[in-house]
Amino acid sequence: MAKNKQRPKQNIPPQATNPTLKAATLSSQSANDGFSLNPVVASIIITVAVLIAFWAGFSNDFVLWDDNMYVTENIMVQNPTFANLIRLLGVESALNYHPVTMASLWLNSALFGKAAGSFIVVNTLIHLANTLLIFQFTRQLTKNNMLVSFLVALFWGIHPMHVESVTWVSERKDVLYTLFFFLACIQYVKYIEQNQRKYYIYCFVFFVLSCLSKAMAVVLPLVLLLIDYWYDRGFLTVKNITSKIPFFIVALLFGALAVHIQGGGNLGGRIEKMTADVAIANVFDMGTKLKFGFYGFLVYIVKMFVPFNQHNFYSYPGTDEYNAIQFITAPLWALIVLGLGVLAYKRQKAVFFGVFFFFFTILLVLQFLSVGGAILAERYSYIPYFGGIFLVFYYLNQKVQSKNLILGGSAIVAVVFMYLTYKQTLTYKDTGTLFANSYKYEPTSPVVNENLANHYGRSGEINNVLLYGEYALSKGVESYALMGALANAYYLKGDYKKALDFYQKSIDKSPDHRKFVAYYNRGIANRDAGNFDQAAKDFTTAMEMGENKTAYLGMRAFANLKANKFKEAYNDYTRMIDLGMSVDTAYNDRAVARYSLGDTEGAIKDLKEVMKRNPNYVDARNNLIKLGVQP
């Protein structure tokens, strides 16, 4: 020890040379005996496997499950100007504030167009980058153990439970926050190993970017404490905690902001609201929340090993099932898992690290704070599964002597997982396939039925709209989209009274930026029901609230004409002519308005203008004949 003290100082932290860490390093190195794989070759294999597993999703379309709010109906992404980018940085989307994510969608649209495929491909490429980052991070943790690092990255990259995060366009936030999250972890390990403050700063910057991509990143400080533990620097020590005070401050700020926005807030008007709903619902008592939260915790663990019955919406059970055995016993089983992790603190570092990496990174979405209407969601497993997969392969590497046996068995499971991932990507082909798949497992879910009704409404399948929509309505769903779908269905069936009732409900429920659609649709229904004066008012409101202030000018002009509001009709048709909108029709119908106002000479002039422009315009020809003028 005296000799060690006399050696020149090196640019590494003192903890890196302690006996415990040295033993762990030797153990990791000896685990490589009998197996070698070039990192470049490993990266190529991982890349090919990931791309094959997710390839089918590249031809998918958008799904109207948040994709409309993020891309297809987001005017700032659809029209990627610099002014819209600046506006986008201050906008809430789907009850989330994540400006880096929205900026990436804006850039995606600007560079690669608005087709769904480009967004899905970019999501997949970011996922691939995340997988390779996990390969690097695991190599750091295991002192370059290639077998463990390769298998951890491979299985994380191809896992079927990750399809939702990758193939669903709206989950750009998931893959993006993960990118910065693991970049931060890698920089922190460099900071520990090299004791250079710049890596601490890099880690902090990546953490902030991760939080700006998705609020779930706020758990990173806890993960950094786990990394301290892994490197024998202690765990919940005063030094470790105080060194991360800037991280905890940022985490608290972003966490509070997320809760505020999901509760319907807009930061005192500083953030533009695009969603009228709220995500946080306190409908359960704390005991029920604990049962459901720990149940989800266990399901995530089971599906890590056996990804079965996958779908996009896992409904809460009915009230008659709250005391089912799986929910009552869930806290006990979960505490046993966590207890085993605690017991492994001193003797099995990989167990403690893996269990609590999983727990810390999934803790905020275990529905202890009820957010949304699902008891769990596959996308929430994205980062947490690293902890579980790392634990599995690290443990197998220690306990199984034959590395070929590990590799061979893993290859078989990997092929199965790749196939399951491929199959799962196909369920995201479009809105119909997505919710038809969920309906197989959740036939009584109001949300699933609502979305099927909305889907069939867009494709004009009226009977299916009423089948699924009325069921969802009977279960208490009153979203603006469902009200609109039912209104459209009753309109198409000719039941204008019911249609108008539902259009009013759709208007009442719609966020401000979507109300114009409901007013437009109600205008059409009022027009066809003979309520021309109200139709004209609806079209006026739709234009005032929408982005295009002249979009429905022709419809309003016609409604005014039929309502005998000839002066208003004349003004509308004149504006249409000035704007070059449906000019022949505008001249012909303005002639009708002018005649009704007593201006027969002006009417004849307009009709002759139509015949000059289009000699085959039948209505104008007939109108001239009625006025005694030879065309």
UniProtKB/TrEMBL annotation:
Domain Glycosyltransferase RgtA/B/C/D-like: 99-248
Transmembrane segments annotated in the record for this chain: 37-58, 115-135, 147-163, 175-192, 199-227, 247-269, 290-308, 324-345, 352-376, 382-397, 404-422
UniProt cross-references to SMART domains, sorted A to Z: TPR (SM00028)
Keyword match Secreted: no
Pfam families from the UniProt entry: PMT_2, TPR_12, TPR_8
TPR repeats: 480-513, 516-549, 584-617
Domain of life: Bacteria
InterPro entries associated with the record: O-mannosyl-transferase_TMTC (IPR052346), RgtA/B/C-like (IPR038731), TPR-like_helical_dom_sf (IPR011990), TPR_rpt (IPR019734)
Record keywords: Membrane, Repeat, TPR repeat, Transmembrane, Transmembrane helix
Statement: the UniProt record of this protein carries the keyword Transcription regulation: no
Protein name in the entry: Tetratricopeptide repeat protein
Organism: Emticicia agri
Lineage: Bacteria, Pseudomonadati, Bacteroidota, Cytophagia, Cytophagales
